[in-house]
Write a structure and sequence with these properties.
CATH topology of the largest domain: Rossmann fold
CATH class of the largest domain: Alpha Beta
Helix content: 25-40%
CATH architecture of the largest domain: 3-Layer(aba) Sandwich
Shape: elongated
Strand order of the largest sheet: 1-5-4-2-3
Largest sheet: 5 strands, parallel
Mean pLDDT: 91
């Protein structure tokens, strides 16, 4: 009988100061049993500011009861105040908080519960973006001595999402290299442009603005969408085609560029200063747009921006 080959071991994550953990629970008492030791660890960590719990309001109430007098030493933030938009918005929120509140080198304990029963879990599309965020966090925050516990409630996230998220957490036993995982997410082809997609002509800013208004965006939203498209154009270089379709609020602009983007972190790396350099325009685009899809191919790249 031929021996079966040994299973391929899970990749060993590279050592970094960033400690990215995952806690899974399916009941309130399990959440408390997971969260309280983590926050207590943060309270006892020398040289760290108070730990932070970012969670659903009812989960914060559980922590108030469980922590007793120690709760005054823990920052409690409702997760709908933290996770206010896209995955790129969450990156910006995290980077900004660490810069303002963390100790030297980003030292702080953060308990973080995504909004799986709201925006972040309402569709397969949102799930893909969130797994991307979890994977890229291992690269984006690798130099930081931050300790994060991502809390996943199987009652709202569901088993499929939990299993996908395990692949983005280094100690899970099924961890995937972030670049490989994001490449897998991007292997799903984009849907074809809508039948009513319009091929735009230069000047592109004027064309995007006017057609977005014609498709129902307010002047304010159309201007912001135009700025996002213009910022992407400034980063990606010359385009060979620009198309726009959709109805408000979900207007879509697709850019066809002659070079590959290549970098899975493109537009996710927080800029060092508020004043963006031209090559950082995709950061602004990701902050404004609900989705930014990048698909490289042998001839260049397709970059699709959805506003709402």
């Amino acid at each position: 009988m031929t021996a079966r080959p040994a299973p391929t071991p899970a990749p060993t994550p590279p050592p970094t100061p960033f400690d990215h953990r995952m806690g899974v629970f399916g009941a309130d008492d399990e959440f408390v049993a997971t969260a309280v030791p983590f926050l207590t660890e943060g309270l006892g960590a020398p040289g760290e500011p108070p730990p932070v719990a970012i969670a659903a309001p009812d989960r914060l109430d559980l922590l108030r009861d469980a922590l007793g007098g120690d709760v005054k030493e823990v920052a409690l933030i409702e997760h709908t105040d933290w996770y206010t938009g896209s995955a790129a918005n969450a990156v910006a929120q995290g980077a900004g908080y660490l810069a303002a509140q963390a100790g030297p080198g980003g030292r702080i304990h953060l308990l973080m519960e995504p909004v799986w029963d709201g925006r972040a879990g309402r569709s397969a599309r949102e799930t893909t973006e969130w797994i991307r965020y979890e994977a890229l966090a291992n690269l984006l925050f690798a130099p930081m001595a931050t300790t994060v516990l991502c809390a996943y409630d199987t009652r709202t996230a569901g088993e499929a999402i939990v299993e996908a998220a395990r692949r983005a957490h280094p100690a899970s036993g099924v961890y995937e290299d972030p670049v490989r995982l994001t490449a897998e997410l991007d292997a799903v082809p984009l849907a074809p442009p809508a039948p009513d997609a319009e091929l735009l002509r230069e000047p592109y800013a004027e064309a995007v603005r006017s057609r977005a208004v014609a498709r129902g965006l307010t002047w304010v939203d159309a201007e912001l969408f135009t700025e996002a498209v213009t910022a992407a154009l400034g980063t990606l270089g010359p385009v060979t085609a620009v198309r726009l379709w959709g109805e408000a609020p979900a207007c879509v602009c697709e850019l066809r560029v002659a070079r590959r983007v290549g970098d899975p972190l493109a537009g996710f790396v927080p800029p060092p200063t508020p004043e963006l350099e031209p090559e950082q325009g995709l950061w602004f685009t990701r902050q404004v747009c609900a989705y930014v899809d990048v698909r490289d191919d042998e001839h260049g790249a397709t970059v699709r921006l959805q506003y709402g």
